[in-house]
Amino acid sequence: MKLQGRVALVTGASRGIGKACALELAREGADVAVNYRSHPEEGEETAASVRALGRRAIVLGGDVADRSADERLVRDTVRELGRLDILVANAARGVRKPFVELTEEEMAFALGVTLWGVFHCCQFAARQMIAQGGGGSIVVVSSPHAWVPFKNCVPYNTAKAGVNQMALTIANELAPHRIRVNIVEPGWTDTPGERRYSTEEQLREGGSRLPLGRLGTAEDIAHGVVYLVSDDASYVTASTLRIDGGFVLPRPSV
User: What is the CA radius of gyration of the chain?
Assistant: First the structure.
């Protein structure tokens, strides 16, 4: 097991990519703190699946947009599981509507979760990793939205662009502490969040038009995350791993 004896905190782990990351980390030996925002039963389900793999798991409710909640996430992880070696900053929210119709509240909501939530979680996790010594690993789940100006996605595009620059800067500052910080950019991935905006038929048709012929799965993303936090990537920091099946390749028909 690549992660035997390590402890991970995964935000937004009750479903989708976050849940898949929690389970894949557990399969490789990590104990996992499972964060959820508004679906405690799904958080408990993720934790039960982690325990079924023979690992310890705790469930931590909290909105990552709330700095005090993020401080508590890290503190409770350390209190219950003994330390913190890995942070997967996954939680994100977006608003899809035309720019001219956006409200200040909608913009603030998306930035609060998707940008500020990453800042708070990374800062508290980094402080803990520095205090305990021995290094650590942070993976920020970003998106091609960070650099592709998709229409009707100003809040999400803006937040993810900021997240990428933030992660790279954090990597620069934390390298002397042997804390590695990397970015994962999922492409079009079949998740519960994506199904809020697309029908089954749209997802199937969209996937068939991608270079590799299908949408990504949450497990595809989780495999990349596990690589980045493992010793296999011990010389990798400030890198971006795009897991998108060729989504961003030029395709005039898409």
Answer: 17
- Our answer to whether residue 156 is catalytic in this structure is yes
Query: Could you give the CA distance from residue 230 to residue 56 in angstroms, rounded to a whole number?
Result: 19
Residue 248 lies in a domain: no
Give a yes or no: residue 77 inside a domain.
yes
* Separation of first and last alpha carbons in the chain: 40
Q: Is the pLDDT of residue 251 over 70?
A: no
Containing structural domain, residue 152: 7-242
Alpha helices in 29-175 (DSSP H): 40-52, 67-81, 104-111, 117-132, 154-174
In a domain, 147, yes or no: yes
The dihedral of CA 8, 127, 17, 189: what is its sign? negative
DSSP symbol at 175: G
Q: Give CA–CA dist 229/241, Å, rounded.
A: 12
Count how many domains the chain has: 1
pTM for the full model? 0.95
**Catalytic site residue from 14, 137, 142, 143:** 143
Q: Which of 14, 19, 142, 160 is catalytic?
A: 160
CATH number of the CATH domain containing 90? 3.40.50.720
Q: Is 208 a catalytic residue?
A: no
In this predicted structure, what is the pLDDT of residue 191? 82
pLDDT digits (tens, 9 = 90+) for 77-89: 999 999 999 999 9
In a domain, 250, yes or no: no
Which is catalytic among the residues 156, 198, 235, 239? 156
Structure tokens at 186: 């999922």
Taking the C-alpha atoms of residue 184 and residue 233, their distance in angstroms, rounded to an integer, is 13
Stretch 40-46: mean pLDDT:
97
Amino acid at 175: A
